[in-house]
From TrEMBL:
InterPro entries from the UniProt entry: Lea14-like_2 (IPR055301), LEA_2 (IPR004864)
Coiled coil: none
Protein name, UniProt field: Late embryogenesis abundant protein
Keyword match Kinase: no
Keywords: Membrane, Transmembrane, Transmembrane helix
Organism: Macleaya cordata (Five-seeded plume-poppy)
TM segment ranges: 37-63
Domain called Late embryogenesis abundant protein LEA-2 subgroup: residue spans: 100-199
SUPFAM superfamilies in the cross-refs: LEA14-like
Pfam families reported for this sequence: LEA_2 (PF03168)
Phylogenetic lineage: Eukaryota, Viridiplantae, Streptophyta, Embryophyta, Tracheophyta
Amino acid sequence: MVEGDQVRPLAPATDRISSDEDEIALRTKKNLKRGRCLKCCGCCIALIIILAIVIVVLAFTVFRPKDPKIRMNGVQILQIKLINGTIPDPTVNIKIAADLSVKNENFASFRYENSTTGIYYHGKLVGEALTPAGHAKARRTERMNVTVEIITQRLLAEPNLRADAASGVVTMNSYTKLGGRVKILKIIKKHMTVRMNCTMTVNLTSLTLQEQKCKRKVKF
């Protein structure tokens, strides 16, 4: 044997055992950490799924957009001049104040655009009024007063007016179109248009609204 060659002593068995234990401990620690991460991710995914289900359920139940209800509460004649107590004076237009209300049953405000209310007599447009844009708060009723001016000359051009005036009552129709939007939780948006037709019977003796019937139709 060459004297320059040296025999390296083997590592003690205790050192090898300690190294193996450290490696096992490190692997165990990594596995525990990975398990915690998987559990955390699983909980987050489950929470997201539950929230999504809750939102969908609420969207189709509690937060489901409901139809706004338009109602004509009453009509008041502000200005009218009759000749011999029956025929309107053609030089003075008739002014009518209509009390309208918009009932919003949603959990969000209903914003409506400029609307138009028309007054018809035997199918002919004799008066019109514009309603400014606005909004009805959530679960509230918004009331508005609309002044309609009826052009008397158009009314007198209808041949049935004399017979109706002689009976003491005049029947007219009103048509209101209201478009708007409901926005819930800044996610659900619903555009809708409400159309309302009313038949009104005006008593010429007392100058009051004798009877009124309305029908409402909503289009999404």
